Amino acid sequence: MNSLSLKNVVKAYSNHIAVNDVSFEVKPGTIFGLLGPNGAGKTSLIRIITTITAADSGQVLINGEPLNQLHPNKIGYMPEERGLYKKMKVGEQLMYLAQLKGLSNKKAKENLKYWMKKFEIQDWWNKTIGDLSKGMGQKVQFIATVVHEPTLIILDEPFTGLDPLNANLIKDEIYQLKEKGATILFSTHRMEQVEQICEDIVLINQGKVLLQGHVDKIKNDFKEFKFSIRFEGTQPADLPLDEVDVLASDANSIVFKTKDYEHSNAILHAFIKNQVPVLSFNEILPSLNEIFIQQVTQKS
What pTM does this model have? Predict the structure, then answer.
């Protein structure tokens, strides 16, 4: 059973269709990327999933059940626009949000102590939210998102404004939550982050799904038979370069594009036959960013 299923979801605002017949499924215990340029419809979809707004038509299922008003207590949502009350103390803010999600006073304190110790911020309890730096505020917002132990966690651009140290801290926690069984929906337009942490993705643009599937499969589907070879010594004189397009080369490396694996193997064979030491031989798959730009440009 999927943690989240969207079936033919439509949402319009006045004359603008923000979500246009969107369908996708998120498997349990995975990190799933919801991708698209600004204005693609990502936030509109998240608002529907979290019951902030309702779809005009279509269906949303959480663990096989039609979306209802009880589901938000099982969802943790970290919006791109952070929503902390600047005049409140960190402790009272987190207690308030934890109890809104159904935790008892005792359980809320217990969970918050665990997370604040984990992030080494035990002494922040009486700090005012408005006095925190952006990175500090991000940590507090993340704790507010996960303190009630949600089974579905939605993170909208969670690394925006974070320095590398804090970004890695949050990333490590995302992996650990996944290992404990949580399903993570990760919304972003930053493709390099997606390649690092997501297993499956859906790419939307102008409210429509352009492509979806496993990250590795999508990259293979868009491969262009590009290869790189690094070597020591002298390039073989009988290298069959007339069969390929050389994209770049120097004294000890060649990047080339060919029609199929047979021609790439012929290049490698020439090095082996001439006993030229090969340091590496790799296929260069397109990045998600390249695929993203290609698909959005072609279909916009």
Answer: 0.87
